[in-house]
Task: structure prediction
Amino acid sequence: MKETKKQYWKGLEELTKNPEFEKHADKEFPEYLPISGESEGTGASRRDFLKLMGFGVAAASLAACETPVRKAIPYLNKPVDVDPGVPNYYASSYVNGNEYCSVVVKTREGRPIKIDGNKLSTVSGGGTSSQAQASVLSLYDKERLQGPELGGKSVSWDELDAEVAKQLAGANRIALVSASVFSPSTLATIEALKAKYAGLELIEYDQVSFSGALAANEKSFGKRAIPSYDFSKADTIVSFDADFLGNWLNGALHSKQFAQTRRLNDKKKTMSRLYSFESNLSLTGSNADYRNAIKPSEQGAYIANLYNMLAAKVGAPAVSAPKVGDTAVLTKAANDLWSSKAKSLVVSGSNDENVQVLVNAINNLLGCYGTTIDLASAVNTRKGDDKAMVNFIKDLNAGNIDGVLFFNSNPVYDHALGAQIATGLKKAKFSLSTSDRKDETASLTSAIAPDNHFLESWNDFEPVTGKFSLSQPTISNLFNTRQAGQSFLVWSGSSESYFDFVKARWTAKADGDKQTYWDKTVQAGIVENTVEAEEVTFSADVAAAGSGIKSTASGVELVMYEKSAIGNGSQANNPWLQEMPDPITKAVWDNYLTISPKMAEELGLKLGDMTTQLVSLKVGNNEPIKVPAMVQPGQANGTVGLAVGYGRTSGGKVANGVGVNAYPLMDYKTGAQSKAVTTGVSVSLSGEEYRVAQTQTHHTYMGRENVIQESILSKYQKDPSAGRDFPMITTYSGKTKPGNVSLWSGHEYPNHHWGMTIDLNSCTGCGACTVSCQAENNVPVVGKEEVLNRREMTWLRIDRYYSSDAEEGDLKDMEIPSAENPEVTFQPMMCQQCNNAPCETVCPVAATNHSTEGLNQMAYNRCIGTRYCANNCPYKVRRFNWFKYHDNDQFPENTSMNNDLGKMVLNPDVTVRSRGVMEKCSFCVQRIQYGKLEAKKEGRRPVDGEITSACASACPSEAIVFGDLKDPKSRISQMLKLENGENGPEVKEERAYHVLEELAVKPNVWYFTKIRNKEEKEANA
Amino acid sequence: MHAEAVVRKPLVTGGKTVHDVTEDICIRVEQAPAKSWYAAMAVSLALLGYGTFCVFTLVWEGIGSWGLNKTVGWAWDITNFVWWVGIGHAGTLISAILLLFRQRWRMSINRAAEAMTIFAVICALQFPLLHMGRPWIGAIWALPLPNTYGSLWVNFNSPLLWDVFAISTYFSVSLVFWYIGLVPDFATIRDRATGISKKIYGALSLGWDGAAKTWSRYETVALVLAGLATPLVLSVHTIVSFDFATSVIPGWHTTIFPPYFVAGAIFSGFAMVLTLMIVTRHVYKLQDYITIEHISLMNIIIMVTGSIVGVAYITELFIAWYSGVEGEQYAFFNRALGPYWWAYASMMTCNVISPQLFWFKKIRTSIAATFVISIIVNIGMWFERFVIIVTSLHRDFLPSSWAMFYPTWVDIGVYIFTFGLFFTCFFAFAKFFPVINMAEVKSIIKATGEKKK
Result:
């Protein structure tokens, strides 16, 4: 078909090519339309009108929706020293009962949110315990008493004071029952009370008593005091059930001292040797080079035998000592002690006076007094006298005591004879507790005068003779509470404020300007005077002590102990501590009977995945109690262990009903406390199933050298790379290091490159870092049920591995830890901040990505929660928000996110994560940013040590070091001996290794090999 | 035109005429459903209802209502996802690849197989969505959409993103392919229908007029789509396998995965087609269209792919031993002898041993045996994915993190939800859509004249 040439036109205008028409011919509507506002020069167009109307309607309808009201109250008058967003730090002292730690408190907008160690203190060594770390949450405990009570009714302080004055005035004998008091000012107020009420008597007791040691020291040296120990000077340490790295006396300081002797580098290739003789596997035992599992009844015999071995070397007369089974390790210990002489230390956790006299005799033989033991610097935190306490209880029940004041103590719960106190209290005319809560004791007293939390208090302390520290409030009283010292002042008739009282006592001694002295002292938090060393002469009758040693028993023996986290149970209502895994068992939210694998077999105990059975524990005449059994490798056969601090009935919602109370089982037959019960203990299966939540259920490292690399000292001395595993990858051109083969071109780090080293030799596994991390990073507590579901949220965990007796390659048997005496390795594990991070490549939305400073960072807002990153993480350190953990009644244990008061502890620099997002260790990026900003404001580079992670700052043994790898002078660069090689910086330190190096994910965390001070033939590795 | 040898056995038996085909197939659409259909639909809807409640619980409470934990971040969710995607492979394979290979026996089964594919992929798609911690934003952010977050883009390195592309492409192509195939049959129904059905089927048939030109276009489009779909059959499960193969986890980090997954997918897809076809064939009395010969041929494919899968399992074990890599060796030791040995044993029995029975012609041509084995195969394939995902994750590099996975009722409920969804869709399809491709089947009916001879 031919194309038509016909043309059509719209009208005559087009045909005639009218210029007026042609001008608008291309437009659909040739006439004017008001659509192009600007070109026409008019202000608002139709489109603008529609836009505005649309916006208006949307805005109006949005405004109609109800939005939650969130109150933010600005400062009307800004306090001088409080700037929003800028933290203030105050030196203070953590004191809870007889526990002490010198601390620095971080406050934000007037709220204390974090506690770190005071590096100036030599008493706590700059480290912290997990309990000190967690104590900031106890401040915001909703279940603290909100004001004084009289007969169960709220009253005003005036009413209470009037009643107390009346009652005390009418009382003949008044007992003031307290944990060891080591505050000079408080003691002075007590003196003032005594002065006013002649019948008042101070009775001190400790939950785990040192009464026997105190008596032994009095016998030996004429001084009733616990000496300061210096483990850093000891080459040989022998511990008989003294968990000095745990809760024995001053774990934080001892950990630091002990770690000093364990650190190895090119300049120091020697380390201490630790022998441990104990029944339960403790932190100390798990860090020991040689450990013997002994029954508690054997302890005295072992010590006596050790004495005899050493006495034989000196030529001193032997004491009568019962025979002990295996003396091989004991002989070895004796030889080592003898060769290190004064650089030795023997300690015992026994509360038996005779045993402690023998220990003193041994230390005296070795000449340890003056080197590793300083009796002049007496430790004042343990002064309790068992006999005085027992006499008090007798008097109370005899009705001889008219008034009882409980200060800093809760003996109805934490004393073996607590039940007798409870009944005896009915006979007293008046009783009062200064407890911060209606605890087991306070709920029975006629009056409660609630004490402040230490973060609300002024006070001074003398934890070690001559070494003082101050406590200052970091927040005004949350409730209508009053410091006990103040109460004592009021009741003694003084009108002075306790602050003035403390200050006056301090400034009285000052030379020069008193205010300046006071300000400086408060700022530093500590005053440490040098104490002249005393010449000590040992004067006890060793032979008598030797013959006082009881012969060994044969039945099942029970040994009570304190867990690192819960300790004596006074902070049991603190969910951070309840959920901190026990360093050894990795169990949370429970206490349990630790039994040896052999005993479990004999009992016929059936175990499943985190399921065990309740066993019935009968001790003496006590009612049998049902406790879950926990099979514990290393538990001395024939012994069972049970932690105190659990089974609270009036501790608070978090504490109540968790575990069983072991205090009533403490043996008081001799009138003194014994935490071991050696007779009349029986254990039988009850058949009931029970689940104990553990964060780790697989206990050996399966011989995987890419995880744990360890060796022994003699090998290390010959070759610093001893124990190292060097994986190689086979390529077409031969074998090469895994890091040399990569798909990735790597990252540029123009400014900083953050890294971390963890010395497996220094890490004692105490777990303080984990609580510090939890506090710093707003990590939620999930409760027992969720831990059973394997969903704890901690960013930092400490992996604990036991050695196995299995043949290499027997993959089934390698799962079973050595039953009798496993070697233990602790490995703190957090995000390794890989440079070739497997998590980063798999995230579909790039929510986890790499920073220019080497951090593997999480953008929570971007995360859609596929969990692919967590699956692909070889270290399994990523944590998913399975539920909404904040503002959710399903998680009442998570008090820091589920009530208004608890929320005050949250770190405002760290997001509280929402449901459905992934989270993980950020290397404390908020601290890094803060440190960089501070430096920038001052126009300088950040100084090494200025920026550190929460875990590193909390670590009492300084096993964790954080720093900038780009700074050649930084401690971490020095430790790693970083040198610039062909492929960027190379680590020349031979002990440093990457976990799973063969994957070539290139972590920024290095571990230093674990070196044990063992003989070659005895080492498992 | 396609020439067929006269001596060749007919693909449709029973001496069906072209009109019989129309009658036999259309009657199911036109008649009121049987009581058994109502019963089946009621069960499906009940499953769907209960499943919806479980899905609601999941979305309301959080992923914590599943049994996942810090160590095992995927379990039933991704197991079910891969399982359904695998099942969704048969339809397209039958229609596309067999079309290209001119396997005309496929004609009586491709419609139902394709429908099953579509529904299986829909079920599979539930899991990537529901397994997300925050599906309400994840559903959008996982797509490379322009946004106002600056230069924020999806992570093209992530295999999960590749999944998004692979599966959405596969789903769209399969859907279009299926729909194009349905158009002539819709027109047939339209021509016989009255009232509202006429309108609906009229709209669905896109104005089909049966002209030679229309047929020509129809066949061209079918061929083009078959060409497009064929690589997709191979690519989808290849890419799904990349989720695992590109990771570092021992047991996942395996180059054998792409072919192994594709074989497994065809294996399970054919099994699912058989399960459904045997039931449909029986209920709709389609024995003349879906003959024993069909079943036997499909069984052979199951046997072949099952053997490929078996070889892959053994290769994995060999490579684990041969590689000398500690983690890899343990992963496979643990699969076979660890706490999940029963899952591995189930997988081996169901996937490797059971299809070998099809070597026997008696079993291959037995309806009952085929039905049972087809279900066993899909149980086995579910366990395969469970074994790969859970036993690899639950014990990987650091023994401290080793953990067990225990499913909760919500895990099971969400799986049930997809069953409810699948069968509801399938029964609706069986009622409202022609279950056999009438237009194509008519082309393999022996002409009347031939029959008379």
Notes: Chain A touches chain B through 61 residues (CB under 8 Å). The radius of gyration of chain A is 33 Å. Chain A has 31 helices and 43 strands.
